[in-house]
Amino acid sequence: LRLTKADLAYLREHLQKGATNFEKPRPEELYAALNREYTINACNTRTAADPNLSIDEYIGFLAKQAGKRVIGLETAEEQLELIRKDVEGMPPKRLSRLIQLIKSGGNSQICEATDMYRQMAFDYRLTEPCFNSLILTDRNTRWLEKIVGDLQSSSCFVAVGLSHLQFECGLISQLRERGFVVTPEETH
User: Fold this and answer.
1) Which of 6, 76, 117, 176 falls 20 to 30 Å from 58 in CA-CA distance?
2) pTM (two decimals)
3) Could you tell me where the beta strands, DSSP code E, fall in the chain?
4) If you write DSSP's letter for every residue of 94-145 in order, what string do you get?
């Protein structure tokens, strides 16, 4: 990975302040960490006092507080491996552009997704095809077996990212195909 000295210094400073700590980070791990940090800072998705890095951690925290059992659909290492495969061969310029975006104060379009979550204004786009088989289709198919088993054996709450609910390959469509009644609140 080739970065300018200024970008490398900025990266070191930025990651030391954040929750991400890599000894020898790969470019794709840096990219994922910087994207998360950027969204947190530019879109104000966390307060300084919030110990949770993601909505996943927050939901897990609330579940544990309520005495609920938390079961993950994949491990952190499995997620990292998927990120590595998804951005394999990422050009160094992509990482440099993200650093420049962070330094410049950002892009308001990135926060549109955050605003959609805040307003709970979801468009599930159930008739549209999936666009990423590695991150969406394949994962949804793997997860479906676990989710169906859990739904058939007990009462449970399933929390996944919005894109895993959307599209023809989404969990809503796949659960409906298996005979489950799934009624998302349509807002669009």
Assistant:
1) 176
2) 0.72
3) none
4) HHHHHHHHHHHT--TTHHHHHHHHHHT-----TTSPPS-IIIIIHHHHHHHH
